[in-house]
Amino acid sequence: xxxRPVVVDTDPGTDDAIAIxxxxxxxxxxxxxxxxxxxxxxxxxxxRNALSILEALGRSDVGVWEGxxxxxxxxxxxxxxxxxxxxxxxxxxxxxxxxxxxxxxxMIVESARSHPGAxxxxxxxxxxxxxxxxxxxxxxxxxxxxxxxxxxxxxxxGNVTPHAEFNFYSDPVAAGRVLGCGAPMTMVGLDVCDRxxxxxxxxxxPAADSLAGxxxxxxxRIHPGERFSMCDPLAVVAxxxxxxxxxxxxxxxxxxxxxxRGTSVVSFGDGPVDVAVEVDAPRAIDLICELAPCAA
Length: 296
Prior knowledge:
Blueprint: E1 4-10, H1 14-25, E2 29-36, H2 43-56, E3 63-66, H3 80-83, H4 104-114, E4 119-123, H5 128-136, H6 140-143, E5 144-150, H7 166-170, H8 172-179, E6 185-188, H9 190-193, E7 197-198, H10 211-222, E8 228-229, H11 231-240, E9 245-254, E10 264-268, E11 273-279, H12 281-291
Parallel strand pairs: 1-2, 1-4, 2-3, 4-5, 5-6, 6-11
Antiparallel strand pairs: 7-8, 9-10, 9-11
Helix pairs in contact: 1-10, 1-11, 4-5, 5-8
């Protein structure tokens, strides 16, 4: 069996960069391209960062398609306070390459049509692009093999509000649309992400001379004494080895307004979503460190 075709939908983001490095390093995955979305940074900055990351990894052969600038009628959330002024803790310089013609939505839809029943989407930013792709192609849920979602908080507090995780808070309408679309999907939320961390003790830290190591080393310098949750890398871990996570199936709704905006409302039982609630953190860190140091 050949490598599995995937699209990585991303808003880089330090942990996005590590997740991208992992996906590109894995022989199990064929990354057809990156699609960018506003989230940690503006969509223009996300696109620039995605191009710079690919150049730093020596993978400019992989295309980048620019996507949504934010949720319709809303102002996207950004996380410069966490990731730095450009969204990456290390200045990778201005990219020489440019995004591919066409939109992120067109790329996702065309990739699904070209790989019916085989394409997987690893969505590690707000879900605006994926929701827009569902609108553009109503048959998309039947064309996809699976959507891997980094987002939500099923049984734990949020990281933006007491209730909501960043990606779902950024575009809760899109999150609800995707989670209810009926495609096979896995939700990798804060319940497991916050158990997979690196910190000042440098335990489980990728090689210092790798891109991942440089990014994390600078993040730890900027945020002394804190620990870094490997949220987006864990979504790639889930795609590569789901046995590292304990799952419960159910239905997931997302609150869209008021103080509970972005809250994941999970009803366990029969439902279309595999919700990660447990993780083998040491083995997950080992896999991240095995794959992330793929280039200096």
